[in-house]
Amino acid sequence: MNQRISIVLATFNGERYLDQQLQSLLSQTVSPFEVIVSDDNSTDRTDALLASFETRASFSVRRLKNKPALGFRENFLNAASKATGDWIAFCDQDDIWRHDKLELCQGFFTAEGVTQIVHQAKLIDGSGTQIGSLNQGIERTSVRPALFYDVWHTFLGFSMMVRRDVLNTLPFSERFVDYIEPKHLIAHDRWGFFLAQTLGKTVEIAEPLVCYRQHASNLFGKSGRRPTQGTDIRQKNLGYIEATRGMLGCIKRLPRTTEAHFPGFRREVALGVYAAALRQVEARGNIYELDRHLALAELVRLILAGHYRSAQNSRLRWRSVARDLAYCFGV
What average pLDDT does the chain have? Predict the structure, then answer.
């Protein structure tokens, strides 16, 4: 049986680039089952562009309007909750999809135990000129096992396709704080990634299937993160602690039917991984409460005790070591 694809497109005052993205959806070699468009109370020509798109599309287009605006996190997740396809592809309003994005991803739908598909991207500027590439750590097309990635890793939403039943395991209202921006609940892509890599396998496609536009109005740049000043490191770590506690709590709340529905899910293994990750960020928090000369001694102690090793595979997390060394030396 063919598995159906729901594209979830969130818009907000997107008239400048939106038409190019909509045209790339119309040009797909494999048409989606439906496009769910959720507009966050735009005041420009976005509505008119969407109305024109709806008349041209050979597939179902369902339009939602948020009054008042929800913000991009709730906008995406609320729209995703309305999807009826088997897979959900998140879509940003200002990118351009390669014509065969859906076709290439569709080829992996029947792979056993796969819960998400991710891919590389090209970087383009406001005029559409390529200015770089974004491989997101994907070096070759492969299948990664459940819980392969660092628990605080993610892929950018436009590059992800997630099984809809993954997002149905827990209400999105129950998600935890965003470790990147702790004043908000976790963003749609990080939420989807967390659930998908916990419940099953990830397909990595080593091809750039989206042109990811970089411009002044981007909510996030190519890293998906905003820089944090050294003086904020204590507060940042508290956000990671709270988020990781939330991850652990979500695993504990997953229904007992989850194992039957996702055979690749191992509850006890997942609980162990997220508990180990929580111990790591809690231990690192001790460093930031000490004077810098004492913090260095604590850092060495934590390295020797294994607190800088990945919760999944025990590899040393060099970036975390480097970050905390920089803190100890006041860099």
Answer: 93
